[in-house]
Structures are given as structure tokens and as C-alpha cells.
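Take a specimen:
=====
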Amino acid sequence: MATTGDVESDKSESKDTTDSPQAGKIDILLKATGDAPILKKRKWLVEGEKDIGFILNFVKHSLKMERNECLFIYINQAFAPAPDQKIKNLYSCFGSDGKLILHYSKTPAWG
């Protein structure tokens, strides 16, 4: 389960991390899609070695979802990455403006 040491809130919206994320951490922007509740904090710093499964668990925990409820994560509003995909690999392929934008939904939305 996600702990406060694993995921940090990024309080500075104007921080520039375009070239290299600080200490292996990557800016993640989480956007709600469809009927998913909106998170109070949307921008987070996550270690690049974490995988999408970690993000799934973190978002489910943050939204106080039951274990049996489904949550879908999408990149570029097009495809759902495998739960074992590393954040740093997805960032290097699909990151833009210094962050990786992930959309989450409780129902299938794209792809």
C-alpha cells in the first residue's frame, strides 16, 4: 500500500522538471475521467522505479474504494498500460512538459 514516503504531493505548480526528474522522481498528473471522483491533489512526485500497479493501489486507497471495485488507468487518453509497467519507462515514452499525465476511471473509457 502507498505510504506518505512513497508518494509526495507536489505543492509547486510552476516547478520545472523538464530535463531530469529530481532524484529519480517523476511528476505524475492524475485526472479523473467519466464517473470517477476527483482527487483533492492531482499532482504527485513518484519514484520512477514504481509501477502502474502501485499507482492503481494509491488512487484506489486515496478514493477510499473497495478492494473489489475496478479502476482503470490510461495514458494519452488512449490505452491502459500493464500494471507491471515502470513509471520511468512510460515517462520517457509518453511524458510531456516535465510530467506524465494519467487519466483514471471507474469504468472503461478508452482503448
User: Anything to note?
Assistant: The mean pLDDT is 84. Strands lie at 7-9, 25-32, 43-47, 72-75, 99-105. Helices lie at 52-62, 87-94. The CA atoms of residues 34 and 105 lie 6 Å apart.
